[in-house]
Design brief:
The chain is mainly α. The protein contains four helices and no strands. Helix 1 crosses helix 3 and helix 2 packs antiparallel against helix 3. The radius of gyration is 34 Å and the shape is rod-shaped. The mean pLDDT is 78.
């Protein structure tokens, strides 16, 4: 009968230690994980109770359990939140040289359009003339 209380404290301490050690660092609150482990070891009852009440993050969604050596334990990648209801952005598969060539073409077209607007504003071009490049001007 005298061993029941120490045995319960020991079981509580072991459960708290296993839970604290197997948690990822981002699932531990208020103190670093190492500090919680020391706290549980040096003050078994108080440390274990505080660990279960304050130290761990309680998820409402049940997560799949992981073993101690599971590499998923160490990854901080959480599943991405669902994307808003919009069109997915197209991925650009062009090389950098192709992208630069396209940008240079866009710049050239913009310069030609600006030249056409200037000529129309001056009234110097008629509708029968075709567009001329700036070099021909």
């Amino acid at each position: 009968m005298y061993l029941l209380l120490p045995l319960l404290v020991f079981v509580l301490m072991v459960a708290a230690l296993v839970d604290a050690i197997t948690r990822r660092e981002d699932q531990v609150k208020h103190l670093p994980k190492f500090a919680w482990v020391l706290f549980i070891i040096f003050l078994p009852f108080v440390g274990s109770v505080l660990w279960f009440t304050l130290g761990r993050e309680w998820d409402t969604a049940s997560r799949e359990s992981m073993s101690f050596g599971d590499p998923r334990r160490w990854s901080r990648d959480e599943p991405a939140p669902p994307a808003p209801a919009s069109r997915p952005q197209p991925r650009d598969y062009r090389t950098t040289a192709q992208q630069l060539a396209d940008l240079e073409r866009e710049i050239e077209i913009a310069e030609l359009e600006a030249e056409v607007r200037r000529r129309r504003a001056r009234g110097g071009s008629s509708s029968s003339e075709g567009p001329q490049s700036p070099e021909a001007g």
